[in-house]
Specification:
alpha+beta, 3-methyladenine DNA Glycosylase, Chain A, 8-stranded antiparallel β-sheet, 8 strands, 14% helix
Length: 180
């Protein structure tokens, strides 16, 4: 098993973490079997000033969860799909990274989008508020090898109002990215 990422990795700015998660492995244990994927696409979200962020909508559970300690798993539903995010930054400041797409490494499947990847890895609301560092079912590991990747930066997908900064990141020419 590769080295699991520690809290200090996630305790940084969401934009930095979103970029640096590319190429890392999102691992999942289901019924005693290990599934490994490569993270190929992410988006960064911030506090109340970010109009596309869940933190900008009232004082509900999602905003409170985004302010939890780095490494907290944030799961919420959109259009009958679960989406998985990892809280970043310091406790009390709302930041998170949405995992938009993964590439299966030791099995076949389709993780080309945030809803598809949660179905593929059977991630759902029961994982909401778990912590990556304590979970025996979901964690993030260093990537396989030292392969240099080229990162593309774009504006986030599916948001009606956005900040004027590119917060979507993906591995150039990876066939598992949700949209080029």
């Amino acid at each position: 098993m590769a080295k699991k990422l520690k809290k200090d990795f996630f305790s940084r700015n969401a934009k930095v973490v979103a970029r640096e998660l590319l190429g890392k492995s999102l691992a999942r244990k289901i019924n005693g079997k290990f599934y490994k994927t490569r993270i190929v696409e992410t988006e960064a979200y911030f506090d109340e000033k970010d109009p596309a962020s869940k933190a900008s909508r009232g004082n509900g559970d999602l905003k409170k969860t985004m302010k939890m300690p780095a490494g907290t798993i944030l799961v919420y539903g959109v259009h009958n799909n679960w989406l998985v995010n990892f809280v970043t930054g310091r406790k009390g400041k709302a930041e998170a990274v949405l995992i938009r797409a993964v590439e299966p490494l030791n099995f076949n499947g389709n993780g080309k989008g945030p809803g598809l990847l949660t179905r593929l890895l059977k991630i759902n609301k029961k994982h909401h508020k778990e912590n990556l560092f304590n979970s025996s079912e979901i964690w993030v590991e260093e990537g396989n090898g030292t392969k240099i990747i080229e990162i593309v930066e774009k504006y986030r997908i599916g948001v009606s109002k956005d900040i004027p900064e590119k917060m979507r990141f993906y591995i150039k020419d990876n066939k598992h990215v949700s949209r080029k």
